[in-house]
Amino acid sequence: MTARLRCSEGEEVSAATASAWVRSFADGRRLRREPGAPGREAGVPSRAWMDVLAAWHRWHQPQAWAALDPQCWPYVQALERARVERLAAIGWPGMATNLADGGAVAPHDPVLQPLYLCARLLAAGDGVAAENLIDEWAQAAASSSLASRLARVLLGRTGKCGLDARQVTALLARLRELMMLDCWREDVLKDAPRFAAALMPLVRRCAESLPVAPEEQVVAGVPQPLLPQAQSDETAGDDPTPASVDEGLAEAEAAVVRAYPGYSVFSQAADEIGPARRWYRDADRALLDQLNRIDRRRARQLAHRLQRRLEAARRRQWMFDQEDGLIDSRRLARLVVAGGDRRVFRQESPALVPAVGVSLLVDMSGSMCGQRRLSAAVAIDLAVHVLEISGVHCEVLGYTTVHGDDNPIERAWRAAGARRQPGRLNAIRHVVFKGARQPWRRCRPCLGLLLRQDFGHENIDGEALHWAAQRLFAIDVPRRILVVLSDGAPFDKATAGANGRDYLCAHLREVIARLDSLPLHLLAMGAGTDVSRFYRKAVTLEHPDAVAETLFHQLGDLLTMPFDQRDSR
Length: 569
Prior knowledge:
alpha/beta, Rossmann fold, seven-stranded mixed beta sheet
């Protein structure tokens, strides 16, 4: 009798067939005759699980995770699987088809499954879908029937989810941290040590706050790790994770810190990144009504002009006097003339305007107040409406800081000894008013949050710009446009006092220099301030009423211009 290898959900895989395929793929060689597709009868090999095993043996590098304790392994397994399966899908179309259904091969544990599914989406470059998935789980967790709703939404089955409210909160926090890590680019996925270094702090926090039951620590079919046992006393102190500054303010390695070595963050524990509805209050609806009471006739005229300009640019052009194609009736007379021109056909030329993704990033600091914010809200409201009608992917983002003068992070820094050059000493607040695939009619009510005067404090532009660009590159379009609306240089009182006033400005220039080297069109609009000392392409808005006119004019130029070296072909 042929030996069988027990796999997920009671399915059996032929050990001989599976091991042959795994060994062959792990060595980088194709089989001359690959195993056939699975049938319905019991005992037929599961191609999806065979490909999971093959990808694991080929790309998993145990030594990259050697610094972790054994209790961290379940989380390594879930996240590492997302990496190796993505690498398999990139160059192997057959494996991509077999592994397309993530739910079929996902772990069943209520902690490991969402980590695995979100990691798969991020590895595939679909950060928007991962964010929407996390928001959906968060809404389920906020319902009264937590256990049943979360089990149905998160796991797709009825019954208890096995997590209490505290664990659900911790899980959602870990998922949001996972989404913000800068380790999902293809070059990092191919570099196992870099990928492991980026995820190790998160894996440790998962092991501390979300322990997995021993019987759930092994995903069926995936081999056990080759990790060392617990570290000895001599090496236990060599933990690369920074020591905690204060309880609840544990410093974590951030994507922006790794990307810019000269920039550091004292603590990320209080950072807030999420959709606008997280902070939305009923009183914001009255603020949004201000947009309907002001005179918007000029702004509407500009919006209509932009729409007509986009429609004209997208309209296909006809090429006449062609040797084949559609008959041009106006030139048929040539055929009856002796020796006449036989080119009586016409052809339709392709549209010159490529698919575009636009991100509008708005400064929400305290100085960006009053008429400036109101004018920005009017321009954004109409611009997003026009772009949506024209089929342009558009995001609306905002940025500010959590704390003002009463800054607990600065107090924690002083209590810890006030070391020199601590880096950022405030918590960032990044707001997603509209995602690229969300309809504006559903997101528009939250625009009232942009008009709330007490919501924003300071502005840390460098990290906000890096974050907005990351989101923009998750949109699969050949042209990307990032428009920043700010009222001046980045500033945070605590950070400037500890690191020098030019610290945040230097970081902003470094971020801009990196973005200028990428296929991205970056435009800055200074509200009453000249921002050309930072941005290569910048315009100054002397009066708040000029926001709409300048925005529509600049967008029209960027959206209709032909391909150039700043576009990804």
